[in-house]
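Continuing the batch. This is chain 6 of the set; chains 1 through 5 are on the previous pages. Same settings as before, nothing changed between runs. Recording input and output for traceability.
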Amino acid sequence: MKKLFCTLLGAVMLLGCLSMSALAIEGGPAWYPDDVQAFVDFHTEESTPRLVDDADIFTDEEEAELTAKLDALRANHPESDFVVFTDTSTYGIERDVYAADFYVFNGYGVGDDFNGVVLFISMEENNRGWYFWGTGKCEKLFKKDANIDHLNNTISPYLSRGEYAEGVSASLDDLDVLFTKGKFPKGFRPLIVLGAIVGGLIIAWIVTTVLKDEMNTVHEATQANLYLDKGSVHLRHSADFFLYRTVNRVKREKKSSSSTRSSSGRSGSGGGGSF
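Output for chain 6:
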């Protein structure tokens, strides 16, 4: 009886979520179905664009370059789909669900599991951010915090500087590595880090050398009397006080990835951030 009750409660909650999504998207984009609960999965045509810039943040040249990269990704990994989508609003829906909805309701995906990943960039005022969402066999790649952390660390600086095309391009390069190796190798992009370290050391050496050369008026003092103002300080009493404190710290685990279902119920995992 208890199991039946839990099952019914879960069904009611799911229907409630679907209804809320449908209400929130009212007056939204043309690709959103009128009846979410009646939606039937389908595969879109191969010619359907994999780059949809509804927020108009890319130039024509940038769109051509990114489209070429997406085509190359699909050719290198034909078992998966790769999609990039931008919009100026999420119509009251969370970014992760909106990203999943765009992928699902437009028929993207390869095979019976609709394998693939979508990168969504929201340009909505007070809701600017991005989200990577993988579904089907790709879902397991986006369940790993290390993979999501790497993707987020790659794209975040670019988006914060307004370099949207550069950020997407770098992310697509990362996805190529991820789908080829199944994870990001340790020490990925080591030359960039090494170059930054070496450059910092060179700059530090130059600065310290210049400062040292300018310190030509410094002479060694053999006595401290030169620095004392005699009679200016009188110590009447001195004492030592010792304070003890015990602090217990507990590490808080933070998950970067999360499971997200589209409004139609399709499961997937991913992660993102704000800028």
